[in-house]
Amino acid sequence: MAADLGELLVPFMPTIRVPKTGDRVYKSECAFSFDSPESEGGLYVCMNTFLGFGREHVERHYRKTGQSVYMHLKRHVKEKTTGAAGGAIPRRRNGKVFLDLELNRDFNGEDYEYEDEAKLVIFPDHFEIPLPNIEELPALVTIACDAVLNAPSAYKKQEPESWDEEIQVSRHARSLRQLDNGVRIPPSGWKCQKCEMRENLWLNLTDGSVLCGKWFFDGSGGNGHALEHYRETSYPLAVKLDTITPDGADVYSFEEEEAVLDPHMSEHLSHFGIDMLQMQRRTENGHHTDNNPRPRVSEWEVIQESGMKLKAVFGSGYTGIKNLGNSCYLSTVLQVLFSIPDFQRMYVGNLQRIFDYSPLDPTQDFATQMAKLGHGLLSGQYSKPPMKSELIEQVMKEEHKVLNGHQQRGISPRMLKALVSRGHPEFSSNRQQDAHEFFLHLINLVERNSAGSENPSDSFRFLVEERVQCCQSRRVRYAQRVDYCIQLPAPIEAATNREELLAYEAKRKEAEENTRAPPEPVRARIPFTACLQAFTEPENVPDFWSSALQAKSAGVKTSRFASFPEYLVVQIKKFTFGVDWVPKKLDLAIDVPDFLDLSRLRATGLQAGEEELPDLMPPIVLPEDTRDNSMSSTDSPEIDEGAVMQLAEMGFPLEACRKAVYYTGNMGPEMAFNWIIAHMEEPDFAEPLTLPSMMDPLPSTSDSPMGATPLDNLPPEESIAILTSMGFPRNHSIRALKATNNNLERALDWIFTHPEEEESDGLSDMADTEPNDNSFSNMNSHSDSTLSPDRETSSPRVKDGPGRYELFAIISHMGASTMSGHYVCHIKKEGRWVIYNDHKVCLSERPPKDLGYIYFYRRLSSS
């Protein structure tokens, strides 16, 4: 038999490889589906590429590559049997076969056991060789099989590179000496004992000193008094006060110079009168929210609809996504995108074509992984209701509470996340992220990977008309830019419960001064109309250079819609930055409407009687021009000294006041005051006013000596692809990037202001950059959109239409900042709202429309 097996494998020996350092072995999930060794058909691992394939997809790989030898992995999961004494008998067969293969479902390890089996399968005849079979297999094959079975999973290869290092227990935690000095820490009103600072405060666990931090492990700012105290006393451990929860806190060891764990935290804090059980709970992966329990608890309960008997739903479009640990921001965005027909059609409708034409390594192909995830969400294959017999069995065992969690396992986005986050410092980490930032990042990837084909992100793209007016000359300039989301301010001053907010703030300050417990927080209630009004109001343009005056002046900008997208994304600007530069969330409730009409915000363009600003560029300022070019008596500009003195009397530096009056064109102290507020954080705020030497205006920044790109060098291909995916011809995109030193945002402005140069060169590229005439022929019938590339090849593709919309999805955030917390989304499907909370999918009883972070609207039909 040994000779027979050896002879059978001889023709395939050159194709069998032993995994080397750096090879990723995909033995836990199929590259095209979410099949795993636990699936009915198991998983096939190619012995040459080490890619994994489910039963439905392994034949495709064999036909495409000719690779014939695969290792078939199968894991049988079953409930543990009970012994005579009533205890569970753990049993695992072939325990070493699946070394380092993580379970693909969330089992209770005390209730389940698994049996593993592996075998070699030779295609196309499906000849099977059970493993292990050391005596009968050639040595090379045996070594290769052992290496595959013992190799860490492909994802564990990535973790040391992209995920955070595990925090270790401090060596001081167990033997920490605490002084019996009678110090008790109040529940609020903390401030540094040396500098009065009230944020980024650290409690020394030895003597109870409350001192400010400095720029160290968590990136927070301060005056460093906590570190100074350690150098004076050698007391090693400190805990950050606003991170204490029932599950722990952020602890830093000065002696070990790193963040650490303190297993005895509760005991150490109780020494100073702090009861951890009364503090706010942690978030999904151990990251803190804040120490104001009441609003956050309410927010968590309302958004997740806690306390309600939510009915689980199954089937197509009702599949959840597993949380990989702070990956809910990704899950919510993907759930919403794949509820939109354009994304469904692009990735799921073209599934077979995408899979058939995928590269040799489909795990690194964006379209393949998007199609895989879209099919997983929409097929219903991974969201099947429990069988009636299973329901009866669970009820008999009184385990019905566990049933929904066991049945709704969801799909894992691990392969897609590894691909889309590769090279990104934030999304490749295991930290919580901003869902809005990830939405824009994903749309950017869709744009890059849709060149020359249907682009589903066209549904979100729209044009914004920006009208900038010089306050001194009253002349205007109109420009257009591309956007995918409108960001609405949340004006607190417009709150309908303003008096209640003022009363709360007064009580809070009083409690802080008297070191008493803070009053019950009050949530600001802001009308949506006030947010929309704030968005449309004129805003000051910082450092505005007026081409009419050939100098800096005061300028105001207003924005309107030059086109309306088919799907409108609205982000509420709930986040701001604290003293420690950590994003913090404003506690807001906004009455967002189900139906929205933005028709009145349609752009009108240049109006009769308006005079345009000259099309001139600001002068180039050379570095040496600004070093010692202080104002002298010979070239001193005209400055309203009266306005300067009014501002100086308010306590602002004299030189800052002079700059404010100069840069606002002597428009008065009020305008100059606004300039000061906008620029007072800049490092050169109080430096003397320096004037650049005036040079002849240049038509393009491509002549700049600083970092300019030579005309005979092509811009980065990635930047060209982004512009061509928006519908701009390739040659015109290259010229725009060269003229703007490869700055994408400025390149877009350049394209809009230089359409006449595009005529002759653009036509030759249309075949490569424009979609077919029928690319969007199967759009929803309610959309009367038009595609601008059919009319003007110099404009990006947009689906313009009426500005009337209906709300269909909400992404909500719970927690104190974008760096922590949890995301949940609600989507309206088949006339009913559905809540997607990681792997759990249920019918919503009360969608939290007033607490959302990102809102998604679909355009209403024109009828």
Describe this structure in words.
By secondary structure, this protein is of the alpha+beta class. Helix content is 27%, strand content 17%. Strands 13, 19, 23, 26, 27, 28, 29 and 30 form an 8-stranded mixed β-sheet that branches. A 5-stranded antiparallel β-sheet has the order 2-1-3-4-5, with no helix packed on it. Helix 9 packs across helix 11 and helix 22 crosses helix 23. The longest helix has 16 residues. The chain is globular.
Short description:
GO terms for molecular function: cysteine-type deubiquitinase activity; zinc ion binding. The chain is of the alpha+beta class and 863 residues long.
Helix % is 25-40%
Distance between the termini: 76 Å
Categorize the overall geometry.
globular
Total strands: 30
Cα radius of gyration in angstroms: 31 Å
Please identify, by name, the CATH architecture of the largest domain.
Alpha-Beta Complex
Main features:
alpha+beta, 6 domains, 863 residues, ubl conjugation pathway, Cathepsin B, Chain A, 25 helices, Herpes Virus-1, cysteine-type deubiquitinase activity, eight-stranded mixed β-sheet, protease
Question: What topology emerges from the helices and strands here?
Answer:
Layout lengths: L1 H8 L33 E4 L5 E2 L4 H8 L3 E11 L32 E11 L4 E5 L7 H12 L3 H9 L38 E4 L5 E3 L12 H9 L3 E4 L10 E3 L4 E3 L4 H6 L22 H12 L23 H10 L3 H8 L2 H6 L9 H13 L9 H9 L3 H8 L6 H7 L14 H14 L13 E9 L5 E8 L2 E3 L9 H16 L10 E3 L1 H9 L2 E2 L4 E2 L4 E2 L2 E7 L5 E6 L2 E3 L5 E3 L2 E3 L4 E3 L43 H9 L4 H10 L5 H11 L37 H9 L4 H10 L4 H10 L5 H4 L3 H4 L16 E2 L11 E2 L3 E11 L7 E8 L2 E6 L2 E4 L8 E8 L4
Parallel strand pairs: 13-19, 14-22
Antiparallel strand pairs: 1-2, 1-3, 3-4, 4-5, 6-7, 6-8, 8-9, 9-10, 11-12, 11-18, 15-18, 16-17, 19-30, 20-21, 23-26, 24-25, 26-27, 26-30, 27-28, 28-29
Helix pairs in contact: 8-15, 9-11, 11-14, 18-19, 19-20, 21-22, 22-23
